[in-house]
Design a protein that fits this description.
Blueprint: H1 2-24, H2 32-42, H3 54-67, H4 76-85, H5 92-108, H6 114-121, H7 131-138, H8 147-155, H9 167-187
Helix pairs in contact: 1-5, 2-8, 2-9, 4-5, 4-6, 8-9
Length: 188
């Protein structure tokens, strides 16, 4: 339990530093459309859960153990915890800590800020360790991007861009981007 409290203290400091960085520095910042694309693609019940989605977790466990295929069940808050704590080991104890910390994050941070924080700190691919690096490397200005560019940027969270050009990965990014746009259009 002490370990989780230490991680929570560290996580609060990381979140506060991230928030401060955005209040002091200039854009680019993730746009509302990028946040919506993230939510429809990664956490459809985002507004209805306290940082953990029991339905998604049960579905992921069922798929993993009955079908033998991996399926994600992490919420955006859980993904934010994973990125900020830099803990990626595939263990049950890490997942439990992540769940507990995601609930704490959701209580600590206004809900609408969680997608912004995650998009700001997530890994998009080689030399794109956060949102600003991704925008610089891809030569994107979030204030002028179109829907496709936004969707393909968010798609890189699932399919990070490799160092060398890879047509298969670029096809995955493009297809994921198209899928995100379709999901967003269904929501509207």
């Amino acid at each position: 339990m002490a370990n989780i409290l230490e991680e929570w203290r560290y996580l609060k400091i990381s979140i506060d530093q991230l928030e401060k960085r955005f209040q002091i520095t200039e854009p680019p910042l993730p746009t509302p459309r990028m946040c919506k694309l993230l939510i429809v693609g990664e956490d459809r019940r985002f507004g209805k859960h306290p940082g953990v989605d029991p339905i998604a977790l049960c579905r992921a466990v069922r798929t993993t153990y009955l079908r033998g295929t991996r399926e994600g069940g992490s919420t955006i808050a859980m993904q934010l915890v994973r990125v900020l704590t830099n803990r990626y080991e595939r263990t049950f104890s890490r997942k439990i800590r992540e769940i507990l910390l995601a609930v704490c994050v959701t209580r600590y941070v206004p809900k609408e800020r969680i997608p912004i924080l995650y998009l700001s700190s997530a890994y998009y691919g080689w030399r794109m360790n956060d949102f600003r690096e991704a925008c610089a490397r891809l030569k994107l200005n979030p204030m002028t991007t179109d829907e496709r560019e936004d969707a393909e940027l968010v798609a890189r969270l699932k399919y990070p861009q490799p160092k060398e050009f890879n047509s298969k990965r670029m096809k995955e990014i493009n297809q994921r981007g198209q899928h995100l746009i379709q999901l967003l259009n269904k929501e509207n």
